[in-house]
Every structure is written in structure tokens, then in C-alpha cells.
Amino acid sequence: MEKLINQAEETQTLSQEELAQLLxxxxxxxxxxxxxxxxxxxxxxxxxxxxxxxxxxxxxxxxNCLYCGLRRDNHQVQRYRMEPEEIYGLAVKxxxxxxxxxxxxxxxxxxxxxxxxxPLLRRxxxxxxxxxxxxxxxxxxxxxxxxxxGADRYLLRIETTDQALYERLDPGMSLANRLRCLQxxxxxxxxxxxxxxxxxxGQTLASLAADILFFQSLDADMVxxxxxxxxxxxxxxxxxGGTFELATRVMALTRLLLPNSNIPATTAMETLxxxxxxxxxxxxxxxxxPNVTEGDYRRxxxxxxxxxxxxDTPAHCRGCITGKIQAIGRHVATDAGFRRKEPERRFxxxxxxxxxxxxxxxxxxMHE
Length: 368
Ligand code: 5AD
Ligand code: SF4
Ligand code: FES
Fold this sequence. Notes:
By secondary structure, the protein is α/β, with parallel strands linked by helices. It has one domain (about 15-360): Alpha-Beta Barrel (TIM Barrel), CATH 3.20.20. The protein has helices at about 1-10, 15-25, 25-45, 85-95, 115-125, 140-150, 165-170, 175-185, 205-220, 245-255, 265-270, 275-280, 295-300, 315-325, 345-350, 355-365; strands spanning about 50-60, 100-105, 130-135, 155, 190-200, 220-225, 285-290, 330. Strands 1, 2, 3, 4, 5, 6, 7 and 8 form an eight-stranded parallel beta sheet that branches. Helix 2 packs across helix 9. The structure holds 5'-deoxyadenosine, iron/sulfur cluster and FE2/S2 (inorganic) cluster (FES). 5'-deoxyadenosine binds near residues 197, 226 and 229. The site of 5'-deoxyadenosine has 12 residues, from loops.
């Protein structure tokens, strides 16, 4: 196992079979894997942790994914839609908390037409924020117009690359259209984020290994990986769900194969483990997405039970996560956190000349 880990660290290559072996390895090997992912993370993207302020602006969804609490047939959730002014207000607050990126996330909600989204994106962009969208499957035209209005990045998890499983768990949706969306986003110049659920009923280690190879073949800029957590108000409520351990193994292997991608320590990880996000940051992650949604909306955006921070304010979460990051000897990054295609050479550069450092900062700010 150690040989495989070293090979991955040096060459960024593992076969599907090798990945599956590492996913099944004993705990001692897993510790080596986590240490390797932590090393690669430090060498490639440094000790800075990028914070992305998450705005969950609508929990209304036209889709019916079997695992998800926001599925349209779940009548237990109280649905909400924020008005554009309210979304904008949260973006203004995100700037106040010092976030450089906002993530606008919702169910697939056709209420938010281009006529609503375009002016909203332009106004948020004018605040100087990088904008990440997470709105699900849209037409290429819509993606193009969001991009022209200021969106920089887009998150769309593949969920699983196993076509039969995907189409069973996401009724009415197709893996082919999911791939079409990711392709369109890439061609339109977005930074593209994808990812998967770990521990879906019927999912195998071979299938998770294929997911990791998919992230690599897409050259994903961001990869969000989370354990599947059964939600009692869904058809999968009685299933077993994923584990924190396996989800972090998938994440650590993703770091080895995509060394300079941005990888979040996900909220679902912390739902399963009280130090989940911090441990994830020590197993390959370099991003956290604190919630800036306020009040009852937090609770109502109920993908799965046990979601953290539902009774906390955005200001509290900002302080909380900063303290935890600093407690492990890391720091909150101050730039917008676009993907670095070059390994982190910040310190070497400062030693040579201050000017290179400055111009690097500018080019990050101008990435549009
Ligand atoms: N457990 C964990 N994650 C979930 N998601 C949806 N339902 C669940 C669940 N029960 C994730 C999906 C989706 C993201 C917004 O939330 O991966 O892409
Ligand atoms: Fe809707 Fe996304 Fe939930 Fe599927 S996973 S039901 S698309 S919010
Ligand atoms: Fe929300 Fe710690 S991040 S309470």
C-alpha cells in the first residue's frame, strides 16, 4: 500500500483497481494516505484555507433525487425563496465578514429566471466578490449568460459516475445531461467544480474509484466530496449511509490525483464527526464554505438531518471556523482563491522580490 501511495504522490497516477485497494486498505495504510494528501496539499496549495460564504437562497427544487431532503415530493419541508434584494443583502454581509467568494446555491428552481439572475449577479460582482453558482442543471445559454453577468465558478457534483445507479437515484435525470452541463461550463470558461456522494446504496468501492478517475479526467478545478446521510423524509431514509472515514479516503485520493485543485472540507463530514472539517483539512482539503444564510432558512435548507450550524449566526460561524483553522497552525487565505495551476511558491518569491508577489495577487484579482 505504501508503494501505491508513494507512486500516486510522485506521478499522480493510480488505476481504478489500485484506487479501490486503497479505499479498502487497513487503518494504518489510511493514515499514510492521509499524511501523503496533507503533504501534497501543503506543497501545492499551501497552508491558507479559502473561505467561501454560502448563501442558500431557495430550497425549492423541481427534481426528485431519492437521497435529498429538498426533493419535490418531500412535503415535510417548508419551502422558501429569497427575493433578489435579500440575496444581495447577504452578499453585502459576506463582504463584511471578509469573504472573497460567495456561493449562490439553491435547488433547481425555475423561479429564478435570467431576468432575475443577470442583474443580481452584476450587482454582486460589483461588490468585488468572486461568484460561484450551484443551481443545478441549466441550458448552455443560461450558463453563458450567468458567466457574462459575472459568475466565475460553478459547482455541479456528478454524484456518482455509475450510470445505472445515477439514473435510479435521480429519476428523470440522465448522466449524459450531467456530463453535457459540465462540458458546457468548462467551454464557457468557468472554474468547474464537481464531486460525489460516498456511501450511496448499491455503490461499490470500484465505482468510487471510477468517480476519482472522472474528477481527474475532467481536470476539475474543485471537488466536493461528502458522505451520503440518510434523510428520514426520503425514500432512502432507512438506508445505511456513508462514513466519515470512507469519505475522507475518497477526498485524500482526489488530492493525490489532482494536486492543485480546491477541495472543501464539507459540512456533511462535520455532521458525522464533531471535528470533521478540521480533520478533512488535515487529510487533503483546503477550502471551507461557512454558511451566511440567516435565521429559519438555515434549518429549512435540509438536504440531510443533523446539519451543523443551524442555530448559529453567520458572524458566529465566521469566528468559529477561523479559530479552528488557526488552532491547527493554518490561516485564512486573503485572496479570492482561484485554482493555482502552479505549485505554491509564495515564500520563495517573497525572498526574491516583493514585486512578483504583488503582481501575482493582482492577476488573481483580475481573473474573470
Ligand atoms: N446526504 C449528503 N449529501 C446530500 N446531498 C443531497 N442529499 C444529501 C444527503 N442525504 C448533496 C448532493 C448535492 C449537494 C447540494 O447536497 O451531493 O449535490
Ligand atoms: Fe434538487 Fe439538488 Fe436535492 Fe436533487 S440533490 S433534489 S437537484 S436540491
Ligand atoms: Fe458554524 Fe462553527 S462554523 S458554529
